[in-house]
Amino acid sequence: LxxxxxxxxxxxxxxxxxxxxxxxxxxxxxASRVIESSQINQLFQALLLTKLQxxxxxxxxxxxxxxxxxxxxxxxxASKEEIEAAAAAAAQAAVEAAAADxxxxxxxxxxxxxxxxxxxQSTQNVVVSVFQEDVAATLRDxxxxxxxxxxxxxxxxxxxxAIEEVPVVSVSGSxxxxxxxxxxxxxxxxSASETETGGSPSSTAGTELLxxxxxxxxxxxxxxxxxxxxxxxxxxxxxLRMLGWSVIPLPFYDHYALRSGPERARYVAALLRxxxxxxxPARAPPPADAAEVER
Length: 295
What we know:
Blueprint: H1 2-15, H2 25-34, H3 37-73, H4 80-101, H5 109-122, H6 130-142, E1 146-151, E2 158-163, E3 166-168, E4 206-208, E5 212-217, H7 231-242, E6 246-251, H8 252-255, H9 261-274, H10 290-294
Parallel strand pairs: 5-6
Antiparallel strand pairs: 1-2, 2-5, 3-4
Helix pairs in contact: 3-4, 3-5, 3-7, 6-9
């Protein structure tokens, strides 16, 4: 966020222009030369994260104020309508107070518009990797409907693979944990690919439209020579969860450690089950044989 406070000054100093020039095509090009694409991405995501956090805090404050008024006046003899009106007024006051306390950092509107425009453009410039194609092929084998490089309804993200309308199974809690290596995942560590959920799946069998993102995380999503996700990867997952998506990270080192199609299918099926996605029994891979378990 500290970057935001100097953006306008850097732009003006380097281009001898004003922040309003971000709205002009030529000015926008100059701005892009001054502010690198990685910084633009950081700035947009910082703005989005701040807004989502503010919205969550504001909603929580409004609910707390409303509940407090209802609790205080329930035994006062006031009518239901009076209590509801007082609760609504208290909630609105809490919203206004929270908005004043959690104001976004000062940033010129033109700069924010320019950064947002470039971010939205970047979500349309996607390339499907061989890794994604492999995972998509596994999902097809499992009979799971999906979309590759799915643009979210708000246009803010292109999800590597989005799971569409599928059968759902009962899971306990909003985060059922990780698939175990003993469930036919071969030598790969499925625990490194824990399912991160942004909401609880349905607890009953049937079909439901779930916002589930399978993120095919290649080498650049991890710190060098480690299995630790980079800050950018963690932030992407966090923002998707805040926007209501369940995130299933699928790291490259697990995927490529599995040697056969059935091994990969068992691994992906186990990950999907932790998010409440049932695989058609008729399409489920056969159990692991002794040699595979040994590997």
